[in-house]
Amino acid sequence: xxxxxxxxxxxxxxxxxxxxxxxxxxxxxxxxxxxxxxxxxxxxxxxxxxxxxxxxxxxxxxxxxxxxxxx
Length: 71
Fold this sequence. Notes:
Helix content is 48%, strand content 0%. By secondary structure, it is mostly helical.
């Protein structure tokens, strides 16, 4: 199964197994986006953090700069 940002369900009559859908849903429900964002920013070189923060903002909405205590 492939997916892409802004992709739609294929019109080919593909039917996903309900257990597969349940497993994928459970997997994504268990992701802590705050921890994930922190981990991504922590592992990003300082000079690339603005671009990474912008990419995360584009996907999930405004993300606070975890290094700025004012946010």
